[in-house]
Write a structure and sequence with these properties.
By secondary structure, the chain is an all-alpha fold. Helices cover 67% and strands 0% of the residues. Helix 1 packs antiparallel against helix 2 and helix 6 packs antiparallel against helix 7. The radius of gyration is 22 Å and the shape is flat. The chain starts with 16 loop residues before the first helix and ends in a 12-residue tail after the last helix. It is found in: Membrane. It comes from Oncorhynchus tshawytscha.
Length: 305
């Protein structure tokens, strides 16, 4: 046996601040999944399934990330490891925060159900662990983000992290659009949907190119590509943020007030409001992205042969 064999294991994967954050993610994720499966439950329609899917997916991916980092096997993968891990941590933070809000809203009640307080207490514990998991993933993002004088991957910069948030917000918009927004009634609202789809697709392309280490494949310099695309996204979202409210809430095309007969939870008017609000949110994110993109010094990564 080679005396150098121990070097194949990465001690920093455990004995470091980043390692501690990932171990906390694993412990909290395992606790949440175990408690939900044991007694807390998640039966209650799509909301419960969504929360359970978030916790299971994040726990599984974190396990893979920790194992590959501890064994150094990530070096065998055709990806930019630093960009991949920080992008996943940022997305997991957003997903955990969402689940930490959705689960107690639909499953936690102040009074005890007929079976006693055990189920309620488990659900409260699940919520607490989920919030703690959000903090653990957020800690990884903070530990991995770019700092002055430190060379890091693009996804660890403010601009890169904003790309993850932009994609997440776009998914919220798509979810609202699928909930009966009646966007096909007007050409203008169809245009808005096309804007959301195009910007989401381009943001996804930027993230994939960065995570895969293929930014050098672009004929246009990556820094210029990012700035040009972000400027285009700002202009498109600005137009959609104006057009959508006009064609949804103006009396000529829609209703400025919520219909009294609209069912709660499945009201097209509510979904239209969600789309309008998050359109402005993403517009602000793209503007911030454009500002920060001017301050980044890019290091182009060449694709692996």
């Amino acid at each position: 046996m080679s005396p150098q064999g121990g070097q194949y294991l990465n001690k920093a994967a455990v004995f470091s601040s980043l390692g501690a954050a990932r171990l906390s993610q694993l412990a909290l994720g395992c606790s949440v999944v175990a408690m939900v499966s044991h007694s807390a439950g998640y039966s209650g329609g799509s909301y419960g399934v969504f929360c359970m899917a978030v916790w299971c997916a994040c726990f599984g991916m974190t396990t893979v990330v920790f194992f590959l980092d501890a064994t150094r096997l990530h070096a065998c993968l055709p990806v930019s490891w630093d960009n991949l891990t920080v992008a996943f941590a940022a997305l997991a933070t957003l997903m955990y925060v969402t689940a930490s809000v959705v689960y107690p809203v639909y499953f936690v009640r102040a009074e005890c159900p007929y079976g006693g307080c055990e189920v309620r207490n488990f659900r409260i514990a699940v919520t607490v662990c989920s919030i703690a998991g959000s903090l653990a993933y957020g800690a990884e993002v903070i530990l991995s983000r770019a700092k002055p004088g430190r060379v890091v991957g693009y996804m660890a910069t403010v601009s890169g992290l904003l790309k993850v948030v932009q994609g997440f917000v776009a998914c919220i918009i798509f979810g609202a659009l699928a909930n009966g927004t009646e966007y096909s009634r007007h050409v203008a609202t169809i245009y808005c949907v096309v804007v959301y789809a195009v910007c989401f697709a381009m943001t996804t392309v930027v993230v994939i190119l960065t995570v895969s280490g293929r930014t050098g494949c672009l004929k246009l310099p990556f820094d210029r590509f990012v700035v040009v695309y972000t400027l285009l996204a700002v202009l498109l979202y600005l137009s959609a943020s104006v057009v959508w409210p006009v064609f949804c809430f103006d009396r000529k095309y829609g209703s400025p007030e919520r219909p009294s007969s609209c069912p709660r939870g499945r009201c097209p008017w509510d979904s239209k409001v969600v789309v309008a609000v998050f359109s402005f949110v993403n517009l602000a994110l793209y503007v911030a992205d454009l500002v920060y993109s001017q301050r980044i010094r890019f290091v182009t990564q060449q694709p692996r042969v």
